[in-house]
Records
---
Amino acid sequence: MSFSSIFIRRPVATVLLMAGVLMLGFLGYRQLPVAALPEIDVPSLVVTTQYPGANATTMAALVTTPLERQFGQISGLELMTSDSSAGLSTVTLRFSMDRDIDVAAQDVQAAIRQATLPSSLPYQPVYNRVNPADVAIITLKLGSDTRPLREISHFADSILAQRLSQVKGVGLVLIAGNVRPAVRVQVNPAQLSNMGLTLEDLRAALTRANVNAPKGSLNGATQSYSISTNDQLVDAADYREIIVSYKNGAPVRLADVANVIDGIENDQLAAWADGREAVLLEVRRRPGANIVQTVERIRDLLPELRSLLPADVQLEIFSDRTETIRASVHEVQFTLLLTIGLVVAVIFAFLRRLWATLIPSVAVPLSLAGTFAVMAFADMSLDNLSLMALVVATGFVVDDAIVMIENIVRYIEQGKSGQEAAEIGARQIGFTVLSLTVSLVAVFLPLLMMPGVTGRLFHEFAWVLSIAVVLSMVVSLTLTPMMCAYLLKPDGLPESEASRGRDGRDNRSSVWSRMVAAYERSLDWVLAHPQWTLGAAGMAVVLTVLLYVAIPKGLLPEQDTGLIVGVVQADQSIAFAQMRERTLAVAQALRSDPAVAAVAAFVGAGSMNPTLNQGRISIVLKERGERQSLDEILPRLQRSTTDVAGVALYLKPVQDVTLDTRVAPTEYQYALSGMDAEEVAVEAERMTQALRARPELADVDNNLSNQGGALELSVDRENASLLGVPMQSINDTLYNAFGQRQISTIFTEINQYRVVLEVAPEFRTQKALLQQLAVASNGSGALVGSNATAFGQLASSNSSTATGIGNRDTGIPVGAGGTIPLSSLVKSRVTSTPLVVSHQQQLPAAMILFNVAPGHSLSDAVSAVKQVRKQLAWPSQVHGQFVGKAAEFTQSQTDVIWLLLASLVVIYIVLGILYESYIHPITIISTLPPAGVGALLALMVCGLSLSVDGIVGIVLLIGIVKKNGIMMVDFAIEAQRAGASPHEAIRRSCLLRFRPIMMTTLAALLGALPLALGTGIGFELRRPLGLSIVGGLLVSQLVTLYTTPVIYLYMERYQAWLRRRRQQRTQAPVVHA
């Protein structure tokens, strides 16, 4: 008794079992989360440190390098990059894919504690479990027509960001335009000098005046009292009344020497939403979190958040990535339903009977339902790739049932009862069905082992497809023969014995009859002229290789998600006021485009933007039906900003897959690193200039940013020492005056705010720096004195000792706290300095930035970069490599070759095991080259590159096309065992299997056709897969119907020759010496 006989004899149990599968599938489908793509997040952490007032080189030396030395000792760290800019250090750590991100976070925290950082650092390093190159999953805008931005920022920072960070799945909330309230003390150096005070005196006085510490309690016999004082100052009015000193017995208050205001912590930040100043909250997800579920939780929280805000403050959604994700998933769901309808229509067109159509069609919902149940159990998601797998599987899952029903029908036509025919037919065809399934699943094994991020991206695709195919085999071996046994009758068959002619021709259908007759005649001619067929098969192999070499190659298709991000870049020494004006002008120009729904922009150095000469742009496009494609919109947006002088605009569409871990204005990067920062910078500039001449590349630039304006002060150390002025005194004076130094903290019920010390804005010029500031000879601070003697006069003295200088008629008692004008101790010159210091793997690094020029592919661009690299002679210590998407592409090109070869080897091994033959697998594999030709031609004709999903389509073709070969070869082997000659066996097999081959091929083709022709949201990712399948099937179906029988006969002759050789050896006489 065969496996199928158990289910044929127990129809009730079989039906109930399948009903249970449907129920589990329904429950599983409801539990599946919706996502854009499978979760393939690279385990990464970002460590940020703020040190206001420090320039890029200072940040790199004092903060970034000590942290990198500790992080470099963490196991599992694959790549460490860092950017140090004014007041900000950002270190990005990317770990191996098998590294647990939570454990890695603990190691990072321990490394931070071990690092030796400056004691004056106002903020400790903070790490977040996010990918810095990820874009926000949802952006909220906060604004008001009546309140100042400092209050809006307070609500965003103290209330909204805190509550949003608590939402499950949120990794980080970044606030653009977060100026934060602060008390700013703007000192007038002249008034300070008149009062006999220094900036350091002022800083110390302010620090002592504002404290918040425990005081203890009083415990009496009957009562206890906690002790509190008015030691906490909370606003500018409180600070103005601070007594900082006494002069002639009268108090000197802070208001006498400074303008104290309730201002903002950072006055060089600005953000806009649709042309209106606002605060933007960008929510980044935690790696592994489901985007759709996380955004739904945030949306559910919005009413509560709005209730916490004043009525005149508006909280609105600016952009939501899940809108296009949901639309894309719905589009694929519709495609799935359409595909099911097309496949059922194909079955009915061939079988033309209700029950005969229903039996194989039942395999579709059962296989899909079972797949949903397994997906839910395995924590998979309902995303574009898993749904694409189900769409493709719809054309596969009916194949086994079609083969099964075809075989059972033959025995019913011979006069056997339904149950007997079902048991005999199922037992006979069971091995074929098993061979079809096992060989198809085997195709996906190399895909499951494909390394890299793109490989992991298609792991879920392969699993879903494999599960569906295995379940279809189970249905075909259980439910299909049972239904055939009880539902099929001779008069209800698709074709009766009387209607079927010799060799399977259908006399009732003139169209089908002519098709079979034409195939029979052409097959006889081909079998009579096998050399022509062999030549065509050889040409298919050669043509496949040539087309693969010639076709443009890419990584993943560019998606239109309705969101565009951009960078506005200006001269490196530009002032904040000008950068603010130009960024706003760019945003206004972009808003005027008819395809744009909303625009947000922000400028200022911070966690979202490293330098002052860059601004960030976010563009939300209108619905797909209301605008053109990205290919038309992006160039138009670029042209719309040409009237804004002095800026360059870089735009790139947001993608569902983020392969970078470094924020860059262009899609692709090439990194240079070495021991010597100057050598790296020189070679990076040389390479940038060379690449700009290549037509394959566009937007070529680099991130050196080493031309920022700087005022370099050269201190005369010898004379400063003679005058008793230590370097620390000069440094403190400059930091107090120009570093926006945060000298105290104001503690409130829900947040903490800073007190910022600086000189008044009118003194922030080079002239004022040298003429107004002075330093104390004992290092206590700076004093502007009208009676101070210039250092030049002091230097003219012949005395060589400090005491001698002090005794001269200079008006400065050096040994008793006199002051020296800063201009007497330093020489200044305008120079350049890096705005950003970049490291990669702890070495100085520079990034070459580029995009692919229109009309070229990523493979062209990568080849151009490699050619330029070979032409340039670099020092031995300078090294270069692609990073991000470009690195993933170069790796994938090697992986693809091995993937295809591994698929062929696995199929050969599996088929060899199934048939216990070395020869027959070669016959079946010979059907594959024409499929490759068709797939590559289809992509080239439609103007598409060969991307990873196109390669996956070719791998699927390997599994689909070889089914035809299996059906032919399997039947021919059985016919030979029954006594037929190889020629008669393969000829009869081709004619009898012509209809099931056409049915299964058409089912697979129509299953992929909606993917190839779809134009809805997300079609860019689906189209290459569908086109490669459709093109491959069309060509292979035409060719393999002829090449397979010819190659089968040649392989049989070869086997016969081998048998004769073995017989001759065994029959040869033994010659004795």
---
Amino acid sequence: MSLNIYTDAPSKIDMFEGKAHENLAQKISEIAQDDDINIIGLDGYLGSGKSTIIDMAIDKIKGNDIHVIKFDSEIYHYGATKKALIDILYDGFKQTPNVNLDELLKCKDLALGNIYNYKKIINSKISIWTVAFICSTILSLQSLRYFISDLSGLFTTNHLPFSYYVKVALEFILVFSPVAIGLFYVNGKNISEENGTKKIKKPSLGDILKRNSEDTITEKIIINKEVGTLELKSALEGFVKCTPESARLILIVDNLDRISPTKIKEIWSDIELITEIAGSNLKIIIPYSGKHVAQALSDDGHEGLEFISKRIPVTFFVPPLISAGWRNGFIEFWKETFEIYDENECYEICELIERWLPKNYSTVTPRFIKRIINDIKVTSLTFPTFTHDRILVSFYVLMCRYSLLDFKSLIMNYDERKQKDDDIIEVVRMQVTHRQFNRIFDSADDWKKGLICIHFQTNSEFAISELIEDPLLNSIKYRKPKEYIELSSMYGFDKTWRKALHESSIEDLILFLESMSTTDKSRAHKICDEIITQANKNKLLKGEYVKNIVDALVNVNNHVKLNSNEFFLVERVTALKNRIKNPSAFYDLDEVARMNTFEELNSLVSITEEKFSDNFSDISGEIFFEFLLGKNELYQNLDIENLILSLPQLVNGIVFSLKNEIEFNLFSEQVIEGMKINNANFEDLIDGEVYAAIEERYKKFMAGAELNSIIDLRILCLDKRWRKTNLTSYFPYQAKLLEDHPEEYYASLIAHKINIGDKSSVPGIPSLELTSSFKETLYNYLLFSNNLDVIVGALAIEELKPYIAPSLNFILDRGKVKRLHTNTFIRTLYGPLRDITSVEKIMEFFKDWDSFSDSSIGEKNHDQINQDFIYDLRVVDTLPKFKEKIKSFISDKLSTKTSVIEFIKQASAVHLEMISLVESNGGTIEFSNLTRIFSDFYSEEDIKQLSKNNNIPSIIPLLNADDLDEVLKSLMDLLERKDLDSLRQIYVIRDFGEHLKYDQSNQSDNRAIARLFTYSNDYNFLAKWLDVQSFSLSKWNSADKKTVESFVLNNSDLFPTLIKTRYFQKRIVSNQEATEALETEEDTKA
């Protein structure tokens, strides 16, 4: 069928009697062509047909050489309005005949900021290649004449001396040197970095010469510039200048009343600007709602109207539609929309419109007529039709959709309601409306059913249904979801269902919900919340374990997700947990109740989705070993694999199982996870009572009989004989275990040999493949070793090292050592461990013993500490206490003059490594009372000892700034002593030269320093130090000055910095002038 829906587009003709719209359009078109009036307003209500009038007026204007520009304010409401206005004005002016298009475009681009100028300054560096090329070119040009002359001499003169050929060769090199430099340059590579990436580019010959330049660049680009009033003014003035004076344009600013007040004010100011600048070339027509625009321009509506009247002196008003006029228009629209026209139907609907016109409409407008006809048309498509349905649809739309009234208020009985009780609607008008419907329909029930059909968009059969209570209760009790589904489609079911919730038992409701979840998941989801609410009220599961109810809840949860925080679930799970947490009360229950506890908890946890292991960080070892260990498949929801027993509880569980002869796997994940080497609780178990279960297996093993399984082989680890007695001779009798489980066999044998210290070879081990399974198995056995020392010690056995190392790595990674002798670790164990694993891994393992640094570093035999351990402390962030203890130890070591002197002369590699560690951590040592040690050492120590290398460079970084300053002052005093052997001063500079700076501000006698210059040929470090010092030689006495001048001038290569100073440059020039004068005098005498 054809769906004739009206859009918001303006009509092409005036469909209302009186032709008010057409008359207004005619007048506007006439005035718009008058040069004396530049702006015309059209005031009217929202939807009153202003756009229609404007379109009709434009049609009448067209053909009179007037071009129309339409600016829709609503379209550009959330954008850059001024920018859009400039673009639209440009498009309109562009259509004007004889317009200067180039200048017009330029004006637009300038206003929008698309054209801009900028200066770009390019700075270049003059490279060594450029300097060399220019110099070589100058030399080449100067040498060319001589080269040509001398070259011709080679062919014309015989018996030339050898020096002549050398001269020609040098001239050849000078002439062609620019070519050579150019070839070297273009064959080189330019390396540049762009965006962090290095790029290699082959240079061209033209790149050798560069210059500084300043470029002015003009570009035209599209940018997002903020366009303001000045830009709009600039664009408009430019547009007007580019347009012939005879050109006429009309700008229509439409939908001004559909935008926000802020935007209205902005566009209003733009309109004022346009009218002032454009003059008679551009006329403006503004359709608007005076009420809305006035409120936007000013909080005082009357003041806003004054603003409007000032700016728009000529304003037309769209008249309201008279009753007869809009009714005829409504009929015309109705005929166009609906195929069947009923005059009485249209009359009744018009009556309803006039009676219930929404409050936000002051009068019926063309837009309102289109809107309500569209809504009646669309709503009529959503329910089965019946007689006079469109009348009820129009009433429903007016009341519920336009006036937003509650649907129930439409079908209430107003005959007995008094007017004074009116709170939402006018009772009298509703009574009149109901009488109108009673006249049209046969009875009140008919039109009320019709309204229900319209509101719920369904058939009237669903309106009434009262006889479904008993069938509904039976469908719940006997779990018949199909009957429930049939009943649920009847009208009134919801109320009956709520009543059935209270009359049925909660057990029946849960079982019914289970059957419904497997039949119709979506319906089960709808009723689930209500049933679970009843379960919370009735405290479901509060009694003994009822398997079918718990299973039903699990099945429901599988199809319809339950809330894990439901009260009855949380309460029951909490009670079961508390039962497990109290071992004595738990074992007071009968055996069936104990088993049911875990079965029920396993089911309920699948609903609550909580981790069982999170609530039992210290579960009883007895309960765990009897009911949970190895039951991962039976109780899949209890995440047994994540339960970690404390070591005491682990030992309790093992003892409980041994006493009660409960078979268990010693290497199960939970047991291994809780095990740690050298744990006191476990050591007590090993050294304590020998249980019958263990003794029985040992007797069998030592008698040469085969054990039943690897479970029995593992139990042997729980006796001290496995650590202390050599049982290797009994292993060969376990041929069946070797055949079925070779990895288990060899892992047990190797671990046993490690514990008893047997270094003999293992028969058949070369055939063993080093698999991940073997590594894990050996790791499990090693956890039952006496201590870490015996395992690390076994690394010395080359045959076993490849097999032990991976499992030992597992022990370190997983922190499986409870107690550790730190003194032994850093002296004995660290080196072998460092050979098989990374430093980071060892340090991460060892960080738990950081608090034992005092006992480890404080003991004697510091030289025996592993040097790599001290070195590796520099590269890790862990073990802060060890680092602090080492710093304290070094401070104590260097706390006296005697100890410092001894350290300077000779220090162990470990102590030097400790100093490097303190230095790398930015630490310093207090030397405030010992700053004279160094000056005393250089002045008093035997000269032969001073000539040897010492450890002072290692100590210097440990001095803080104040102490170092004091040390340097005392050493500088030594350098200035004339009575001191110069060699002692030289050794001071050797060790402290990097820090010493000569200061002669208070010195008049510099003899000691001057004397040092004479030793510079023998000591390169001395010459380098003297070269970088600052000397005011002009203030020295003549003897010292002469010594320094003579030595520096004669050994200038040793003092490249000093020789370039102004003082020595003057001496060089003076010497050259004296030499030249002497040569001149000798030439004169000759």
---
Amino acid sequence: MSLVRALTTAVGVGGLLAGVLVDPALAKTNGITDAAIAQDGVLTSRVDSPVAPGVNYTSFERLDPKGWQRGDILDTDLSKHGVTVDLVNNGGKVSGGQPLSQQLARKGAIAGVNGDFFDINDTTAPLGVGVEQSGKLLNAPAAGHNDTAVIGKDGLGQIAQLFLQGTAVDGTTKLELTNLNSPAVNAGGIGLYTPEWGDAARTRTVDGLPTVREVILRDGVVVSSATTPATTPLAANEQSLIGREAGADALTALQVGDKVDVQYGLRPDAANVAVGISGNYQLAKDGKVPDDVPDADLAPRTAVGFDADGSRMILLTVDGRATGSRGLSLKEMGQLMISLGADDALNLDGGGSSTMLARTPGKAAPDVVNDPSDGSERLIPNGLGLLPVKGSDKLKGFRVESVGTSQDGPDADVSRSSRVLTGLSRVLSATGYDETYAPASGTPSWYAGSNVRVDQHGVVTGRRAGDVVVTATRGSANGRFPMTVLGTPTRLAPSTRQVSLSDPSATGFFEVDGYDGDGFSTWIEPQDVKLTYDSAVVKVVAKRNGFEVNALTSDAVSTVITAKVGALSTQLSVTAGLTSTVVDKLDDLTKWAANAVPVGAATATESAAEGHDGGQAIALDYSLTGSTATRAAYLSQTPQQTLPGQPQKLGAWIYGDGKGAWLRANAYDAAGGTAQTLNLATTIDWTGWKYVEADIPPGLTYPLRFWRIYVVETSPTRQYSGRIIVDDLTVRSAPPVTMDPPAKVIDPMVVTDGTVETSGRWRFAVMSDAQFTSDDPNSDYVKQARRTIREALAQKPDFLVINGDFVDRAFGPDIALAKQIIDEEVAGKVPVHYVPGNHETYGPGDLSEWKKVFGAATSTFDHKGTRFILRDSSLGSLRAGGFDQILDLRKQLDDAATNKTIKNVVVMAHHPIDDPSPTQNSQLGDRKEAAMIVQWLADFRASTGKGAAYMAAHAGTFAATRTDGVLLPLTGNSGKSPAAAPDAGGFTGWALVGIDPKATAAPAGERKWSAPERSWFQVELRPHVDSLELTAPASLRRGQSAAASATVIQDDRRVPVSFPVSADWWGSTLLHIGPAKTAPFWAVASYDPATGQLTALRPGTAQLGVTVNGVSKSTTLRVDW
């Protein structure tokens, strides 16, 4: 997914948080500082909201050296406001379990978290102590699992150890109780079970034990004694004593008819306890993490803590086991609880049990606010709930939000709901609340500033760009929703180019996004979008911020949905059901051949083998040894096979060897460029036959041609040989559809006619991805690298940046050759800044050899008012290259924001924010990190008015886009063959950037919806030119127009001279460059580079010429009457 849509709320300049605009009245903080949450990381998101007087909810996201962490906090003042804390459970029962939401609803709680650890595979009963607000003891052991979070009868909290104390006395015999309603009886002990135990069979508490006895009491009299517990639940007047080993023997003293007095409770030192719930580890004690708290496993966690005097309770959940949230160790959890203000804290059940719910102002019931790792709420035994005082139900205020993102849902794009494009709408809702934030009724009136129109249904329509506050009001109650009106939309794009429905019961979703001319975007209200599609094939219904799609037939079908907004349109395809086709049974060995790289190290051979169904298949025997560089073994098909139809998935039967290689495939699309890479399996971790399959991304140009399947190993230390067998190459396809190709977005930062040598700009050159090795110091790639440097230096730049992958491998001799080429070609003429790419690690597995020669992998320098921040993404992300460089990036941006000598900032790293290719394999691997970088830069330019750019390479194509005013230029390869088609940036070359040192900051009032400082950065994307062709008519009659175009020839590529290729069109005195309507009266002809149209104006002769990267071509035009 492009980060245009994925931008998250992130840290802004000076540590402020930017993102969703909310009513300041509902953004009440709880005294927890950003630094307390961030600890040694950076806080990238924070949202605060009141739950009730004295109860505040905070959600956060942070990045630290170990990765991303998302969490939720409930901060409660226990000393006032009347909020009470209570244990909640399964309808008053100890066993069984319920989702936390149902437990909270039973007691009318407005927030809460899960509680004790429990017997997850059997009775679901909690292991420790449970005490309700009434003081009723529900469950407890006499020993074991006794650490407990306690609310005293004075309303204050603490962490304490609570123990069961109980006896059963028949007059002559006194038996000590070891358990109350526990999931298991302690060894040699006696457990008491009451009607509160619930419906779980009591046999499960002593499963598999040889010596067991149950004595059932009814109204205090023994009615049965048996060696197997009964399976029926206890009646209201019954109790059960279950013993094991010595405890079972002791119970034989109780005979049917005996009167038994059972007394139980907590030890006398716990007389002040009103509420209690157990956990396992005490995470914090007197403001320190105890030494016995482990610092190993990362997992979702839940904790409860109290400040030093017990007047403040902190409930914390952290998500885990997810790409976007790593989870915390117990020690880390303790450290975070202390940082948040807890003096003492207890670990509650975690993993899939971790759950938090909190009420939003104006809602009656709380919602799940964390992300349970099971995907939904787990059945749990108990939890802690917060119960508010009853409010007046009188309207106090409104919570105003976008209707499209007010409902829970995976597609809700809250971060952009406060934006609306000029001429389009945003539908708002206003939910009333009273002084306790409980629901209160009242219909509001709506008001807003003059740059929007708002009707009395809360529909806001943008009139002109700018900030505005929309207000819902009734009497003294009001609610505000700050909004930003963007410019007029210039293009549309669907959130996905393809909705694939696996069967008729499946549901798909898409939204339509609108973009203005400066790259600012938001989703478009369904009411503003007109859809056309085959209604006999699919059903499309507006829902939230987009559209829900369902198939209407069980047949394999496809259709195209066209979305129109005014004069703009975009398309996406919908497919339902896929048909499988075996395109090659791999029973003809003559069509396949094996090879391996590096040559001379890794080896590969092919041979016939038995297939998965008893037929013939092909085996690939490989050895990924002999080198620490990336090794691969290929099984290639000759000739390449055209795949039928428009496949969405490519698969094969693979006999795995369990060696752990990465399994991939390559296929070409009809657009040209290098092969697309498809991931069949991240690791071959199985043995025997298994069918594996890769998704074919939408956006490829059909038909596709299959090339090869291969195993690859990137780790230098993993050296092994193995064998896989490949059988039945298969595609799964839907019926073909034909869509219009997406319109090419032409960004004005790229000079398509002229040069950057204007208005006093100073210049620097950028090259990347030459990818040579020392195996052949005179290879074509080396020659291309030298050629690129010479072409760049000929333009006399202030300095040269090599933005990664100068080499293809990073052994000592490879790095030495790189240094030799730079020394020989540059010879000290200009400074050279070398940013490492992923290939600068290939071989050693890190930058060790590169650093020996080129030094530090990151740096920052200022040049003529521009700050350059060079970062190391060589291992696929900035964090992988060292978390310190992320902290330093934040520091450099904060300094540049206030430094009057800095006019703008350019961040450079090898990996791009977004790979423009359909497979998106060549971009920053951590998508949240990529979004954070762009958001930081967007916040920087919005708060300062200074320009911001992120310049990258790696994707094998030249491109240029922008997001929220942040420029995102991308350089392609200077040596290695490009990855894209020639008309889509797929050429070799380099870039020349021109910076305007006199660029002024954007006006403060315009920064959030426009980028008037756009001209500070311009770039020429210069292809290597082996030869240049200019095609134009030799003659035209006056008033006639015809196409004229140029083509760059490089190797076997024909590159059209149009965006993103930079060129300088020129002509003789009598030829005007520009639209015909702007030509002076004496002009014989005009040529408009934007349209490619040559227009004859008056009789005469004129010359048209074009220059591309220093190579010129011209032609003469004769205009007749």
